[in-house]
Structure formats: C-alpha cells, structure tokens
Automatic annotation (TrEMBL):
Vinculin-binding site-containing domain ranges (all copies): 15-116
An annotated GO BP: cell-cell adhesion
Pfam families, per database record: VBS
An example Gene Ontology CC term for this record: cytoplasm
Gene Ontology molecular function terms on file: actin filament binding; integrin binding
Identification of the protein by name: TLN2 protein
InterPro entries the record matches: Alpha-catenin/vinculin-like_sf (IPR036723), Vinculin-bd_dom (IPR015009)
Top-level taxon of origin: Eukaryota
Biological source species: Psophia crepitans (common trumpeter)
Subcellular localization(s) per the UniProt record: Cytoplasm
C-alpha cells in the first residue's frame, strides 16, 4: 500500500511541475487515476482488517477524501489543457495538488495508526534478537575461558 501512496505523491509533484507543459497533464492524470484505483482497492482491504474499527473507518474516509481531491486535480488539469496560458487555472491546479498532497499524508497517518501493533511486534523482535546476540557472545567468551570466574566453578557447571 505504501508504494502506491508514494507513486501518487510523485505524480502530484510532476503535475505541479507540468504547469509549464500542459500537454503532459493528460498522461499524468491518467496514471494518477490508475494509481488511485490501486490505492482504493488496497485501502479497502486495509480498512477491513484494521483493528480497532475506528482505524478502519479513518482509513476508508481518508482514502475517499483523497479520491475527491484527485477528481478536482484532474478537472483542473483538464481546464489548464484547454486554456494553457490562464494563470488563474495554473494557480488553482497548484492549490489542488497541494491539497491532495495533504490528503495523502492523512492517508499515511491513518495507515500508520493501524500499523502500531505490527510495529510494536517488529520492535520487540528486534530487542529479543539483540538480547540473543548478546547471550551468544557471552557464551562464546565463556566457553573459550576468557571470562574470569569469581570462584573456582567452570562455565560448564552453570551452562
């Protein structure tokens, strides 16, 4: 899901840069529409599996809001293609792209909120891996006899 969101951001930036080349806007708008379709499908699956339900609702709502922003952006791109020298339409296109970028960041924050449990598991697994590595290192030094014993016991007695 994150790669699709990233692609959408790239196209928004390309669209704002294409204000000087309006003939490129049609292809960019088409690609953005395809990418948003993929995002909507994956967002629906993410919302259905999100826990708690409020997170799923938030994902669904923010993806829909992003879709509305994309519609306005494509409409402004079409208007600029019709009248490429209209500075007011250029400004509107840039404003729409900025609004869509904000909506993308809201979608990302909703996805991250739904991903907290997964991130907590990754963090815990990383911490456990570090502890295991430390124990393995200690065992290696103890087996080699390089650790000083406090009394006359051997490592094998405690292992």
């Amino acid at each position: 899901l994150m790669p699709v969101v990233f692609l959408l951001l790239v196209f928004f930036f390309q669209m704002t840069k294409s204000v000087t080349n309006p003939e490129e806007l049609g292809g960019l708008a088409s690609q953005m529409t395809n990418d948003y379709g993929h995002l909507a499908l994956q967002g629906r699956m993410a919302a259905a599996t999100a826990e708690p339900e409020e997170i799923g609702f938030q994902i669904r709502t923010r993806v829909q809001e992003l879709g509305h922003g994309c519609i306005f952006l494509v409409q402004k791109a079409g208007a600029l293609q019709i009248c490429p020298t209209d500075s007011y339409t250029k400004r509107e296109l840039i404003d729409c792209a900025r609004a869509v970028t904000e909506k993308v960041s809201l979608v990302l924050s909703a996805l991250q909120a739904g991903n907290k449990g997964t991130q907590a598991c990754i963090t815990a697994a990383s911490a456990v891996s570090g502890i295991i590595a430390d124990l393995d290192t200690t065992i290696m030094f103890a087996t080699a006899g390089t650790l000083n014993a406090e009394n006359n016991e051997s490592f094998a007695d405690h292992r």
